[in-house]
Amino acid sequence: MTRSIATRLLRIIFGCYFIVTVLVTVFQLAAEYKHTRTRVESEIEAMQNTFGPGIADAMWRFNDDIMRGILSGMKELPIVVGIKVVDDQGKLIRAVGTVLDDQGRHMQVQADGKLAPPLSGDGLLGEVFSREFPITYQLENGSTQVIGKWTVYSNRRIVIRQVEYGFFLILVNSVIKTMALWFIFLLVVRRMLGQPLQQLAAYVGHLNIGNLGNEPLRLRQGGNTELDLLAHKINEMRENILAGLSEKAVLYEELAVLNESLERRVAERTEAMRHAQDELARSERLAALGSMVAGIAHELNTPIGNCLVAASTMHDKVRALDASLEAGLRRSDLRKFIDDANGISELLSRNIERAAGLVSSFKQVAVDRTSSQRRKFDLGAVIQENMDTLAPALRKTPYEVLLDLAPLVAMDSYPGPLGQVLSALVDNAIQHGFHGRSHGRISITVPVPSNDHANIIIADDGVGIVSSHLNRIFDPFFTTRMSEGSSGLGLNIVHNIVTTILGGKIHVDSMPGVGTTVRIAIPLDAPMHHEEPIIPRA
């Protein structure tokens, strides 16, 4: 029987049963331990309401006798191995039992109240856990003041002592059940499974697609058992195989046609989805450019309006001077006209320079965005130009952007796609990182390049990204605000531009409630790509 199927089946069953029993037992023990520890921790938490006011009163009144009495009484509780009380500066006031010092070491409180290492280690069971509570005293004016903190310590030995009897019953129960089932299965398998399984194995072992036997299987020890049902199903299978061999060729042909049709439909839908993604990406780029145009146009209204006012004022001054000339020009009138003309000309110069700077920044950014041409540029200057074009829109928000750019970072790359990346990341921080907030700060830092790469760090102090979303933010169509019109393509486009066009890498670190930091590393000399025709500048 050592080589029989029944014996091997018995070994497998009881091997699996033993493993499951061990796992279940360990799980039960762990659950019992965890439940008991939770109960102990709950009892410790309840001490805050019971002993907290007394400790606060004794500490406020500097009554060491009452403090010592309270701590000694708490030490007698079966779940407590030690208590430590410190003031608001961390200085030890009083302690009893076994506690942890500032370095986390086990310390024993001596009779004089000082802490000293225990005489011998307490092993794994002596590992302590604790709960710390603030000591607050209510003043006469109704306010409260934190004057220190007190810590209650317990250890694993206390928890195990409370559940050791249950542990013993679980172990004894598992051992008894395992031994009883082993004995019963051993008798039953040898009598009811051994010979029938041997006969089944011998019959099935001779079956193959070319030799299905001349007679159906009949067990010598017949009966209405599962093995008889298995023999009956084997006979049915034999008959079905014989009947199905003639249909095999037709079935294979139908499967081939179905597979070809399925592959074609998958290819068509994949292509359609790719086109849809490209259209959405193009729409986002055009929407961003349109928003930039509207912002620049609005921003130009102020300097141009100032220029119109200055020109109108100058016209009035000239007419007044002409009238004075006819009536007899005085030296004081001429001096006043010259002073006013100087002021007006300075105002005109400042506003025209401001408008020219806005137009120049927008012109360069717009050409870069639309042509994606490769050129040599200073990284800090390109970032400044892009931030200038975003300034009109940013001024309408309560958020600020701070720049810390290393000078003269010479690059030979694609400023248009780079500007699109910066614009998308700033917009993403405003729309998602600062959602629902009335203030926020974005910092863009370019340190001095190391080796042949430039680093761009975009950080915000917004709401952050939860860890479950962090690995999916670059996936296409992934967004947490789909119902508010977000397409989920912004960061996917950013990732594609950085890793393909700019030939770099992008990494995101985030902590909920703290903020998000995006780190981009791109080569100073970008890899060569097929470039679009250069659009001539006006």
UniProtKB/TrEMBL annotation:
Entry's Gene Ontology molecular function annotations: phosphorelay sensor kinase activity
Organism in which the protein naturally occurs: Massilia eburnea
Cellular compartment(s): Membrane
Keyword ATP-binding (UniProt): no
Spans through the membrane: 12-31, 165-189
Major site of localization recorded for this protein: membrane
Enzyme Commission number(s) from the entry: 2.7.13.3
GO cellular component: a single term: membrane
Keywords: Kinase, Membrane, Phosphoprotein, Transferase, Transmembrane, Transmembrane helix
The Histidine kinase domain, residue ranges: 295-526
CDD domains named among the record's database cross-references: HisKA
InterPro entries recorded: HAMP_dom (IPR003660), HATPase_C_sf (IPR036890), HATPase_dom (IPR003594), His_kinase_dom (IPR005467), HisK_dim/P_dom (IPR003661), HisK_dim/P_sf (IPR036097), Sig_transdc_His_kin-like_C (IPR004358)
Catalytic activity: ATP + protein L-histidine = ADP + protein N-phospho-L-histidine
Name the record gives this protein: histidine kinase
Domain HAMP: 191-246
Record carries keyword Metal-binding: no
Annotated Pfam families: HATPase_c
SMART domains xref list: HATPase_c
